[in-house]
Structure formats: C-alpha cells, structure tokens
Amino acid sequence: MPADPSTPLRFAAVDLDRLTTQVLHGVDWEVGPGERWVVLGPNGSGKTTMFELASGYLHPTRGTVDILGNRLGHVDVRKLREHIGLVSTAVVKKLVPEITATDVVVSALHGALEPWWHAYSAADRTRARSLLIDAGFASIVDRKFGVLSDGERQQVLLARALMSDPALLLLDEPAAGLDVGGRERLVVALGRLARDSNSPPAVMITHHVEEIPVGFSHVLLLREGCVVAAGPLYDTLTASNLSDAFGLALVLEGTDGRWHCRAR
Asked: Measured between alpha carbons, how far is 73 from 62 in angstroms, rounded to an integer?
C-alpha cells in the first residue's frame, strides 16, 4: 500500500530489531489529521524507539512507516525533518548554552542548533520572542539557555518546535525531570496547544497519566514492544488496559480532564 498523504503518521506491521533483540513487534498505528496522541508504557516498552521511527531517525526492520505522506526508505529524511517539530532532551544536550532563549527558538527555522550560520529577519526574531511571551515567559527571552531552569528550557524547546509551523509535533517525555510547578506550566501550555484547531497533529510520549494535557484525544498503550490498546482517550485509557500495560493492578481516576493512577 502506498503512503497516504492525508495521514500524518502511519505504522504498518512494524518490527524493530536491535542486535539480537526485537524491540517492537508488529506495531500497527495511525495518527489522523488533527489528532493528539499520548503514548504510554513502562520503561523498555518501546516508546523511545517509536519516537525515533516517527521522527525519521530510525528505519523499521520489517513493515513500513509513513510520515507526512512519505515512506521511510524512499525519502530524504533531512528534508522530511524540516516539517517535524521535536521536543526532546536529546536536543538540549546539543544546544550551545551561551546562546539566548530567542536564538534557540529562531534557529529552528533552518533546523540549526546555533544562529550564526544563517540570516534571520526582524520578523523572524519577533515571532520567536512572541512564542515565548505568549507562553508566559517574557522574562527569559534574552537570557542564556545554559542558565535557565529545566522547566524554562522545556518551554523554550516547545516554542522552538513551533517556530517553523511544523506539520507534525513529536514530544518525547517533555515533563521528565520537572518539579510540580514546571510540570503543570508545561502541561497547561500543551493543553492550550491541543485545543487550538490550527495546531499540528501531535504525539507525546510519557510514563505518567498525570502528564496527559487536557485536549489530547487518543492514547496508545505499549508493553514489551507490543500494542496493548490504541484508540480514543476516554474509551481506551481504562484501569484494565493501564494495568495490562504496566503489569500491575492499577486504579485510574480522572478529574476535570486530568488523570491520576495508583496501585490497587
């Protein structure tokens, strides 16, 4: 079956082997236009591997992965990644700590990690600053990235991911390592984004139901590289499915569109 240009992301019978270990097993999954997915599962379930496939940094061992109407193995992934917004701690490790938050954001226009090798207009810099100001972070626009808190850095990465108006937004554990205040500010920002009909389809990987923003529409549950369940959030995120994914009897409760769970 050829890639469907109307489907932002599609996995079909995807296996992924690392050396002698099979990490993903027959994964079928489709992200439709305007959908906001959360991918949940324990450590070692294959979440990060799926993120690397969805962002074009890995290719499947068997099966097919279609991204924005392009099939991995038949597309220049460097060009493809220009249309994907990424929020990942891997990006933080590559950024120069001496550049400002605004420079981190604006450099995304050319997929660069520093602003020195490309020209940016006054309008580009105004947009970069506006993305931070609109998120409530006007105080950091001129501060060096290396002195920002973890929570502030994640907000900068989110603004950076949106700078180039991506067709697909991928977030790899964006709240990892944040304190409660930092987590809640980020989750609220992601909730605003999710409820904006002009925002791109999004996929967020996490370990914790508490980090699911209001407005996310679908969930994929993984265990040991296999799909436990996938579908609309309120139908699929159940105590039974969550217990199956984490291998532990769990109680799931929701309040005002937010979730929390505990052992039974």
From this structure: 12
